[in-house]
Amino acid sequence: MANATIEHRDGATIRPDEAAHFGALAADWWDAKGSSAMLHRLNPVRLGFIREAIDTQFGSDPAALRPLAGRRALDVGCGAGLLCEPLSRLGAAVTGVDAASENIDAARTHAEAMGLAIDYRCGELASLDLPKFDLVSAMEVIEHVADKGAFVAALAARLAPDGLMVLSTPNRTARSRLLLVGAAERLGAIPRGTHHWDDFVTPETLRDLLGAAGLTMEEPRGIAWSPAKELHISSDLSLNYIVTARRAD
Question: Looking at the predicted structure, is the pLDDT value of residue 7 above 50?
Answer without folding.
Answer: no
